[in-house]
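Late entry, evening session. Most of the bench is empty. Finally got around to the prediction I had been postponing all week. Sequence below, unchanged from the version circulated by S.P.
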Amino acid sequence: MSHGYDYDLLCIGSGPAGQRGAVQAAKLGKRAAVVERGRVVGGVCVATGTIPSKTFREAVLSLNGRAGFGRAGQGAGPVIRPTAEGLFARVAEVEQRQRDIIEDQLQRNEVTVFKGEARFIDPHTVAVTSNEASSVVTAAHILIAVGTIPAPPPGVATAPDLVVTSDELLRLTRLPRRLAVVGAGVIGIEYAAMFAALGIDVTVIDKRDRPLEFLDREIVDELLSQMRNCDVTFRLGEEVEQLEIVEGPPRRVVMRLQSGKRLVSELVLFCAGRQGATAQLNLPAAGLTPDERGRLTVDRQYRTAVPHIVAAGDVIGFPSLATTSAEQGRLAACVTFGVEADPMASHFPIGIYAIPEISMVGEPEHELTIRRVPYETGRARYREIARGHILGDDSGLLKMLFHREDRRLLGVHVIGTSATELIHIGQAVLGLGGGLDYFLTTAFNYPTLAECYKVAALDAHNKLSA
C-alpha cells in the first residue's frame, strides 16, 4: 500500500479503460478511485459512443423486420416514418441499464467514484470540480483514460438539429429527410448506413478516395455497393470548404465543396476525426505534453513520460476499440503494481456496425500482396448457406486467407448478418495457430452461419489442389 496518498490508483475517466483499470487495482488489494466528468459513469462508451450507437442500430433493424438489406418499409406499401422519440427510447433504456451495471461493479469492488472535471495540480495531485462540490485527491499512481471527443466542424459551431457531431446525434428531436455525413470513417459509415435504412436520403463526403482503408478492399467494395443500393450517395475525393446555415424557411445547411459543388441538407453529421479529451487536464502540471490531436504517447507497458502515470484507451490512439481499451486498462493496472500479465493478443477483431455489419481479424489481402506473402482465398456466400436463406440475407460473404505453403490461417473477413459474432471462430483458430485442416475436418451446427467456414475452407482447398 502506498502511504501518504489518498489512493494507490486514481483513474481519470470511467469508460472501459478506466473502469477495468480501477477494478483490477481493487482486486489486487489496492485503494482505487475513478473520476468521471459526466453525470454518470461509463464514459463516452455508454453516453454517446458504442452502447447508444449499437442500440440505435438494433432499433433500426427491428423497424425493418429483417437484416436491414433495404429501406424501412420498402415493398410493403407507403413508408412509415418512425419518430426520433420512438427510436431513441430504447437507446435511453439500454444506456441506463449499462450504467447501473458499471456502478454496481465499482461499488462491489469498493472503488470510490468522484464526479467532476479533473485537473492536475502536480504529478500526484488532481483537483476534481463540479457544480456541486470540489475536492483535491492525491494518488501514488494515475491512469489517464479520458477517451476522445469529436473534432469540431470547421468554421461553424454545432447547431441542434442542423449541424451535429456523433455526440449530439442521438439527442435529435426529429429525423431529417436528407442527411449529409462529412467523414467516411467508422462512425460516419455506421450512421450513414443506419439512417439510409430508415429511408432517409444520405450523402457521404470524404476527402479520401477510399473509405475504411484498413479493411479488406473486397469487403469494403461490397459494403459500398449495398449502401448505394439503399440510395446512399458517395462524394469521395471531395472536401467541405464551407458550411452555411440558411435560416429559411425551412432552415437548412448549405455546403460548398472545394470542387465547386453545392449541396443542401436538412442535417449535417460531422465526424471527420476525433481528438483526445485532454484539454482540461492541465497536463503540463503533471509533466506531460499531448500531441497535436490531444493524445498521449505510451510505451508497450502503457507508461507515459512520467513513470507513475499510465494511459490507456482511445486517448493513446489505435486501435481505439472498447474491447481493446478495457484490456489496456487492466494491463496498465497490472504493470503499475508489478503484477505479471500476458500482453494483449496481437490478433484482435475489428467490428464495423454498419448495415450490413463488417468484421475482420488478421490481415487483409492487399497487405499480404504488398508483403509478398503467398496466400490463397476461400469464399462462402450466405446465399449458399441454409441459415442465410432463413435470415433473408443473400448478400453476405465470408472470406478466409490461408498461407499457400503451410496452410496457416492468415485472416478472416466477413460482411453480413452477425459478422461481428461469426468472426470469433476465426479469431480463435488464428490465435491458436490453426489453419485449413481444422476447418476441413471439423463439423459445424446446421443450419448456422458458421457453416460458411466449412464452405470457404473447401473453396480454398480446391484452389490449392488444382
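Two things to note before I forget:
Residues 66-77 have pLDDT under 50 and may be disordered.
Residues 163-272 form a domain with the FAD/NAD(P)-binding domain fold (CATH 3.50.50.60).
Will write this up properly tomorrow.
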